[in-house]
Specification:
By secondary structure, the protein is α+β, with helices and mostly antiparallel strands. The protein folds into three domains: 171 residues, Jelly Rolls; 40 residues; 67 residues, Arc Repressor Mutant, subunit A. The protein contains twelve helices and ten strands. Strands 1-2-9-4-7-10 form a six-stranded antiparallel beta sheet. A four-stranded antiparallel beta sheet has the order 3-8-5-6, with no helix packed on it. α5 crosses α7. The radius of gyration is 19 Å and the shape is globular.
Amino acid sequence: MVVAKKVYLNITYEHYLSLRRILKSMRNWKITPSDSFIAKYVDCYWLLQKTEQDDGPDFPKLNPDPAGHIILGSSQLPYKYQSELEVALGRGSHIILPHSRTLSMDHSQAFLIVGIKLHVGALYSLAFPSSKLAIDKVMGLENNEFITSNIEQILSESAQSPERLRDYLDGALRSTTYTTLEDGHTSLVRKIINMGDITELANLGFKLSCSQRTVERSFKRVTGFTLKQYASMRRLENLLDYVHQLENDQLDWADIAHQFAFSDQPHLVRYLKSVIGNTPGQYTQMRDLAIDAYGNFE
């Protein structure tokens, strides 16, 4: 798993390219777990550091995400996430639950955070009982024993190398996830997710040799989202990944609308405005999503 500083509202495209070059100097990486058991639930570990010298965006946007992120940081590190409906404030480690809304993050101060990106549906199986069915929330983890007992070592290992941190987190998580919930619902949802393209939603029951109602109920139970919501977020993710690879002069929004199955360009404009708060034109001026601000490292 971005609103830029107000002074960037009228930046030129050349300024934007210069900004991207500056941001590449920010320290960030991601690495996948090496423990096969942990890899069932954790997609990757990642790190992001912003120093006083980094001229990065103050308020990047995090687009909707059906997975969750556990954010590990100093107990004194403030965080702020804002959607069109609410603001979440706190300090220290926290979890960004699966969310269907774009979140504006406060990255105006220097920070160092380690992230654990979970697989879609992983919270159903893991020991986060209060968050299993919750979505669109940010929850503090200041009372979580695993976090409080490991945070200093986690931050220390993050200063060494990605591999050192990965091995430490693999071991620490392995010692706490000895009890996980695996049932028919999780098995079915993994099959759905592993199918990749789920655009033909009405045929999933037939493809998986069960009723469509069973598919729908299991998916909602494990992920917190309907299949239609999940498919919409996957389409948005794929669209933004595609757009991220292109420079502004290469963007043909009418063609993009066609490629991603929108009825026409105005349909795509309305869709982007509703989910990320920007029209395509505003987006190309700002490039204000986290994927643009920090690179595709999550």
